[in-house]
Every structure is written in C-alpha cells, then in structure tokens.
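Milestone M4 deliverable, item 7.
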Amino acid sequence: MMNSTNISDHISLNAASREQEYLNLIEFKFHVHGLAGNLLAVFGLVANVLSIVVLSHHKMRSSTSYYLITLAVYDNIILIAMVVFFNLPFLSSRVTEMESYFHTYMYAVPIGYPLSLAAQMGSIYTTVAFTVERYIAVCRPLHAANTCTKSRARKTMAIILLWVLLYNIPRYFQYTVHLKFNPDNNITRVVRNETDFGQHPIFRHVYLIYFQLFFMFLIPFLILLVLNVALMKAVKRSRQTLQQISSTSRTNENNLTVMLISVIFVFLVCQFPSIIDNIVVAVDPLNRRYESFTYAKFYTISTFMIEINSAVNFILYCLFGKKFRLVFLHIFGLRKFRQRLQYRSTLYRSQTINRGNSHELEVSLV
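Output delivered:
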C-alpha cells in the first residue's frame, strides 16, 4: 500500500509527464500545421489556380472540366481556411512578429468556419457528381449523350452549391466571439464561445454528430467507393479490348477515367481519417477524447490530410492526364517539352494488312 509521500510523488510524476506530453503535442502541431501546412497551402493555392487556367482552355472544355474547375475553387477555399484557422495560429505562436494574429484570428470564426465547412462539403459532393458522370459515361454509354452534358453539369454544380450553403446555415449561429483580458500577462485576446443555440442538445447531437456523419461522410463515401470499384473494373476490361482493337476515342476515355480514378482514390484515402474522427465523436458524447494526447495528434493528422487532398489534384492531373499535360505545356509556351511529350504519349501500334502481310505503323492520336 502506498503511503502519503509515495502518492504525492506519483501525482507529481503524472503531472510532469502530462506537461511534457502537452509540450510535445504543441511541438508536433507547430511542425505539422505551422511549417508543413503553410508550405503545402502556398503550393496548393498556386497549383489549383494553374488547374483552373488549364481546365478553362477551349481544348479542355467539357462537362468534366466544369466539375474539376469547381472542385479547384472549393479546394482553394479549404486551403485558405486551413491557413487562417490552423497554420498561421501555430506559426504565430512561435513568431514574435505575428503575435497579434495569434490573439485576434478568432474574429474570423463565426463567418469563416461555416464557409470552410460548406467548401469541404461542396468538394465532397462535387467529387461524387463527377464520379457518377464518369460511371455513366463508361458503364452506361447509351445514357451518356443525354446525361454527360455541360448544361447538366452547370445545373448540378448550382444544386450542390445551394445544398451546401443551406445545410451549413445553422453553423452561423453556433459561435460568438468577445474580448478577454488576462491580467497575468497583460494581454487581451479574442475568445470563441458557443451560443445557447450551439449548446442545444438537438443541435449538438443530431446536427453536429449524426447529420455530419451521414451527409458529410458515410453516404457520399459509400457512393464513391462503389462507383470507383466499378470504374476500375471497366478500365481493366477496356484495356483488354484495346490490346486487340486500337481506338483513339476509347484510349482518350480511358486516360480521363484513370485520371479521375486517381483523384477519387486520393480523396478517399485523405478523407478517411475524418470519417474515423466523426465516428469517435458519435460514440464519445462526454467528450473524453479531449483528455487524450493521442486523439489530439490523430485530429492534427486528419486535418492535415484534408489539406493534402485540397492541394495535390494538380499533380494527379499532370501525372495521369495526357491531354491536361499537353494543354498546360501549350499555354505556358514550353514547346520543346510539349513536342517531345506529344510524340511519346500519342503513338500507338496499329496492325495494317498489306498484300497479306501485317506490319506496324506509328499513327499519331492528336
């Protein structure tokens, strides 16, 4: 049995251990959000603008490009929100010149927080929309002519925008901010408090937990998972067919489908931790997770992965989209690289009958 001295020593050790864990957590968040997050956000913002420029080119205009342009806009809003609410606060906590930002950035919460969540939701449903369109184009080609059109894409994007804005209206009434003076360090900070509406049990449990889990994650993610598997199977079957019959249009369709599959796959991987986080929130009504440093690190990683997802689509377009690469090089005047890439990526082997003998020809697809 422990005596009183041993008990007090044990308590002191636990307190010291938790303090060290807290300092390690702050250091971890500083490196993830404060350093890596800001660098990633700058890259992502520039990359998404480049994606919009290329996708807006007349050679790229299609219903799919409309979806991808909209996705880039949503992604940039998410990146800006990450900078405002995560990256700059952790950076400013270490940079003396930015100390004032650390004490005032909460002013942006009542408006910026709902807008960022609306953008995240718009990104999710836009990804679902172009996945459904690609599924129809590849797996239901007889319906593609009437379904996969620019006008239908514009209407779908308008509906998604209206839906995400209306869905997130309650969040504008969740928080309020006010000034709080700390006499210990003589500093006035802007702090965030939940309103009575934000603390209402129906809002907290029904809207924030269950609606969030189902409408933001489970329903769209199940649709994406099922359709992505169907698309991968369709591409595999198409490639087997192309080994026997060369087809320019089929090859181009496959290239587009593979590019979109890569976007969907990265989306699912990067957003998966957020699903886990929402499930944890649903099964932890007493908020005991906030006592765990492990959960705090997991939450940091899950938010950083959302930022990764919003920043990397340009890379995927360049890696898997042959037409995107060519148009990008054309726009920015990189002729030598464009000609070399065009030659290497647009030649296919075709069997031609000549006097009963077959020989190989290189035929340009452009």
